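Troubleshooting: if your tokenizer reports a length mismatch, compare your output against this known-good record of 115 residues.
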Amino acid sequence: MADVQKTFALAVGVVLLLLGLLGFVLSSPLLGLFGVNALQNVLHLLGGALGLYFGYKGNAKAFNLWLGVVALVVGLLWFLVPALLTDLLAINLEISVLHVLLGLVSISVAYFVKG
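Known-good structure output:
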């Protein structure tokens, strides 16, 4: 079952890297829904690199847990102070819902998938 932890971390890492790269290439929102800006792109690239690193180095559970916490906090924070995240990271409702879902799934993988 530890392979699920690793696979999840690697898959999320690849997706985050692609989002970061696409964000720099596209000037309009991804899929017409998800806003992008340079800071958000850099954070996605950093998160993706960490996912790949920890996935390959055998510490995927820690990555999945911290990814979940960060994604959940960012997602919920938008509902409390939307203007801050909208101005700083171009985060909107759709991205916030996605962050909450990613956070819940990541934390679930970290806690409920046994090694």
